[in-house]
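Translate sequence into structure tokens.
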Amino acid sequence: MFRRLSTDTLNWIILIGIALLFIELFFFNTGLVFTLFFFTFLTYIGIKSYTKTLGKVFFWIGAIFLFLTIVNLIAIRFLAIAAIVLFFVHYRRTKENPERIEPAFVEEKEGTKKEPIKRVDTLFKNRFLGSQKTKEIPYHWRDVNIHGGFGDRIIDLSNTVLPDESVISIRHFIGNIKIYVPYEVEVSVVHSSIYGRVTVFQHEHASLLNQTFSYHTENYGESGTKVKIVTSILSGDIEVKRI
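Result follows.
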């Protein structure tokens, strides 16, 4: 159904949903902001200590009440209604103009040649809940470009062979990021955070509040093995250290 939906239509639906969410949170039901934050924090605490009984209790209480709070939002109801309307519109169109599946034969032009490409598995998957870390045994390096919701991300570069230039890009909601870098590797760090602490080697920043900062090692611009780290977090700490 969504394959036939234009990007502009989907963008308008999302923008209207976001507008309704802000109107409800800041004009009609300001207490929801605290409720959402509280149950989100409770869920995060539960994830951090999920191996303990109390952690499981915190997680499920937070997750259940967070879900119930979210589904009662006007914005979520609007998105649900929009999805139902789109479903019936799509159904009516398929009845009037049923999709025909026919073999397609593509004629190659003379002198054209297909570019050989190969799909490569990524080190990390986009995951909304849960922590992720690199293997503790040697592994083949691939650049990291992920976004996530809740949990920690740990990347250990000492168990792999890095190319001349590597990139680690992480966009995260709530959780901590730890990156361990070998001594012979030059590093560039660009980090933005709404709230959290930052430690890059011996440099520490406590309680950042809606700030962006950038660091790079002295010889980063010269030839040699280097890694560029670009991260953004709503709430959480980042630590980059040598190993």
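Note: The first helix runs from residue 7 to 28.
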